[in-house]
Each structure stands twice: as structure tokens, then as C-alpha cells.
Amino acid sequence: MATYAKIGLSSQIIDVIEVENNACLDADGNFDENVGAEFLANLYKWPTSCFKRADQNTRNKIHYDRETNEASADQSKAFRKHCAELGGTYDSVRDVFLPKQPYASWTFNYSTWYWEPPVEKPADVVDGVPRIVRWNEETISWDVINS
Hints:
Largest sheet: 3 strands, antiparallel
Structural class: mainly beta
Distance between the termini: 48 Å
């Protein structure tokens, strides 16, 4: 099965679709992303450009084995930096998927490939005592739940 993201307005991922591999084969029998996108465009009556191939085993630039959930030996399988997820976005300039933004105030760091808060997260352990912190979007700060 091949996986495709359906891209809506503002580059938001509005659906993640599984397609039989044979719907993505060119005339020579080779897998072709564009053939799969054309198949979906005809099926959904949307422009071909709204469908981008995705890999649900790629997270933060690393491809993981579906069975063991460990990093694959063959990292050439890592595709578009992240898997496609509902509410995530497609960055057409970089040709990558971005995970869903957790909070409106957070920004995406293209060096680490993670969403980052505007305020650094405090330590999870202070003086040997674990603590739980939670992001508070109203105050744009971290709340300590237990101390």
C-alpha cells in the first residue's frame, strides 16, 4: 500500500489515504508518485497537486521499521522528514510534511525538525525530585503541576 496526503487550503493535511500500489505504477510497472496522485485526483475530483506521497514510518527525518519500531538500517526510506498527519501541513518550498502545531505560540525549528515553545521548558527533575510541567497557552509559560 502507498500512502498519500490530501492537501487542502493553507497547505493543511485534510486526509491521509492508502492506495493499492498497482494504482501508482507507470507504463513500465515502476512505482511513480505522480501516477498515484493522478489516480487520486480522478477519484476525488481534486487537482493532482493536492496529493503528495507520504511515508507513515518517517518521523523527525528518521525511518522506522514497521514491525520493531526501531530505526531502519536503510535510511534512504526516510521520506519528506515526517509522516503526514491530519492537521499537519505540507511545506511545498521544502517538500516536507510538518507535524500538527501543538500550540499557536510555538514555532517550527527547521534545524531540529520539532515545534518549539517560545519559553524553554524547565527541568523535569529538581534536586533529585521529578516534577510534571504543562504548557499554558494563556500565559505563554510552563506551569509546574507538582513540586
